[in-house]
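Researcher: Please translate sequence to structure tokens.
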Amino acid sequence: MSRLIRADWHIHTHLSDCGTPEATPEAIIRVAKEAGLEAIGLTDHVILREHRRRPAMVRAQVEKETNGLRVYVGCEADMQSPTRATIDEEFAAGLDYVIMSASHLYVSGVERPRDLSPRSMAALILELTTGAIESGLADIVAHPFGVPESPFTFDEIVSEVDEEALLRRGEEAARAGVAFECNPRYLRRSPGAAGWLFSCLLETGVKLAVSSDAHHPQNVGCQGPQYATEAELREAGIVEDCLWRIEDRKGAARGRAR
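Model: Translation complete:
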């Protein structure tokens, strides 16, 4: 049986506000090599305009390939409304690929109701996900229904997701060549909710991008007890054929491999 986690597409360096001081590109690359990964993506947050310098700063510090490890530079952008993202086509054109969050509901600039409940959060995330898919900017939708700083749990939010609407989003994403992130951390922490979510998405034929969303080098490659194992991923139906690869890009990032 071949290895399932051979790439990690969502890694933050120390340039992101959430990244730890230890998360230098050099340290991340070292850990990725030790973990036997074939490819990684460095994807710092780009929310404010001054954040747009981050990918260029990272690119200046890394080689596109080192001892068999391919290193890509993208970003994690945000949908602030169903029609407005924190990046544009011109900026995206300079990246290898784009991860787009549709669930950073507590980040400044995101349009949302004054009073959020699990049901309204689930509905809003579906709207923002549609925006991400239709934007032409996104290659991967980040941590679906995972809302940082939310007073509600992932399980509570997922329990309010309209299944038919979710399946439609999956089908739309599959047609557009947009993947959904699969973070094994959610499967370990909430196996029922995450298992249902990923199972629904897999029904639509959409690709899943297994990623750590690491903020510290030690977690690169989904390493640590907070992440589900490869065996647990396989039990949830996540196998090689459903994984997103950099060659699958069809959004604004298509053809930008260095």
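Researcher: Any highlights?
Model: The chain has one domain: 7-248.
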